[in-house]
Amino acid sequence: MAVSRRTVLGAVLAPAILPRPAAAEVGLARLVAAYPDHLVGLDRDVLVWTDGTRMETGAGRPERPFEVMLRDATLADQMRQTYPAGPPVGPPGRNHSPGRIRSTAFFVKMYGDCRMGGAGRRQRTVTWMPQTRPQPLPVTMENDVATRLERVIAELERLPDRLKAYLVPSAGTFNCRTVADTGLLSMHAYAAAIDLNVAHSDYWSWARARGDIPYRNRIPFAIVEVFEAQRFIWGGKWYHYDTMHFEYRPELIG
Length: 254
Ligand SMILES: [Zn+2]
Prior knowledge:
By secondary structure, this protein is an alpha+beta fold.
């Protein structure tokens, strides 16, 4: 049954994807599938939202330098870098920071604009690590992010006690702020990100030397794995690493 279905779909879909780059097609299809509450599909190079909004994807445009895409990302750019789920195989390659390239227009529409007071009404309080050190944190309800974070918390509470020091206190979730080097809103501005205990964390700009950024991480993978299972990506897999940071980015993982 499954084989014949795949054959039929393959025969029908193959000619349609030939005129445009396959990578952009696949990436944008993943984007649509990742946010079913908000997105209905693609109309050629246009992303269509459930409320009828249409947004240019930038599919088919040539790749630009990383620093340019970081500050002015199209939706196709947002899907260019692959997030490597699972145990890290080594430090991230130069400028491989999957998730840092984000379309601000896309996330502001989805989660609200905190600069206009548009994010708070979509949040609810989640209790971080209630059995270890309870801490109330505001988290967006869009895409069930608050509920997904509660599933993460339930799993983290089951980890050995020696790992809890990495988790508490959390350095926060919602913060209407921009990212230092881009000036664009961070995922914290949408209440769709969380930082662990800053005392055991490493951040690229703290270590920045001339030229390459020396990679450093102390967060055990047992913690990362729990977040990845709920489709939160980890800043420890970025060349511009931020090892206390997790954000809900289902289009890049799962
Ligand atoms: Zn963060």
